[in-house]
Automatic annotation (TrEMBL):
Region forming the signal peptide: none
ABC transporter domain sequence ranges: 2-233
Metal-binding listed as a keyword: no
Lineage: Bacteria, Bacillati, Bacillota, Clostridia, Eubacteriales
Coiled-coil segments: none
CDD domains associated with the record: ABC_NrtD_SsuB_transporters
Protein name: ABC transporter ATP-binding protein
Length: 249
């Protein structure tokens, strides 16, 4: 479904050019959940920004079903590090914001949002403000807002990084289940190796800057298991240690 084809990214600085990404090539099959991990500053978030059109590559192209991603932005949903819920808007007004911007607040789309709120236990909070919700509930709201426009591809940029560890475990389980149930293709950027192994079909490991694809791990043996179930699997530590060593060298 998604193809990163020889992506390059170079920035200009007072001291000359800085190469952030170099010859990034990998693909994501439809319905798969892929995580990207790598050292701090290796260009993980930049790669998502390029895919969603927030930044332009210096070379290469991202394709969505064979079409340049820049021509298919309406088919992508982007979830940044913070939930970005507007504190003065109700939960309902927040989760329907994307529909409002796109002029899609018709009965069919609004009914979809109602269904998502009911399905994920948030219908009773539709009139609350974000400050009245827990961190985990806010993240679920942010994902529902992203799902409201029915994108085929979800791009998740460290969406759990602001949560405490216990909440993070529960929310990653919830979000993983939601994405699987909605049958979405997803790419997650994370610095947490355990998170990547517990949620993904594949883990793409990037090198230190300039970011290159160092390895791709196939986790298909975990198919059908929840993140919490994967963490208890006897092979979990093997994948964790392998990725850890790749990041260290």
């Amino acid at each position: 479904m998604v193809q990163f084809d020889h992506i390059q990214k170079t920035y200009q600085s007072p001291n000359g050019e800085i190469c952030a990404l170099k010859d990034i090539t990998f693909s994501v099959a439809e319905g798969d959940f892929v995580s990207i991990v790598g050292p701090s500053g290796c260009g993980k978030s930049t790669l998502l920004s390029i895919a969603v059109g927030l930044e332009q590559p210096s070379g290469g192209q991202v394709y969505l079903d064979g079409q340049p991603a820049s021509q298919a932005l309406s088919r992508m949903g982007y979830m940044p590090q913070r939930d970005e819920l507007f504190p003065w808007r109700s939960i309902w007004a927040n989760v329907t914001l994307g529909l409002e911007i796109r002029g899609q607040k018709d009965d069919a789309h609004l009914q979809r949002v109602e269904t998502l709120l009911n399905r994920y236990g948030l219908s009773g909070f539709r009139d609350k403000l974000p400050g009245q919700l827990s961190g985990g509930m806010r993240q679920r709201c942010a994902l529902i807002r992203t799902l409201a426009t029915d994108p085929g591809l979800l791009l998740l940029d460290e969406p759990f990084s602001a949560l405490d560890y216990q909440t993070r475990l529960h929310v990653s389980d919830d979000i993983h289940a939601m994405i699987r149930q909605e049958k979405k293709t997803a790419i997650l950027v994370t610095h947490d190796i355990s998170e990547s192994v517990s949620m993904s079909d594949q883990v793409v490991v990037l090198s230190a800057r300039p970011g290159r694809v160092k390895a791709v791990h196939d986790l298909s043996e975990f198919k059908g298991l929840s993140p919490m179930e994967r963490r208890e699997h006897p092979h979990f530590a093997r994948y964790f240690n392998s990725i850890w060593k790749e990041l260290e060298h």
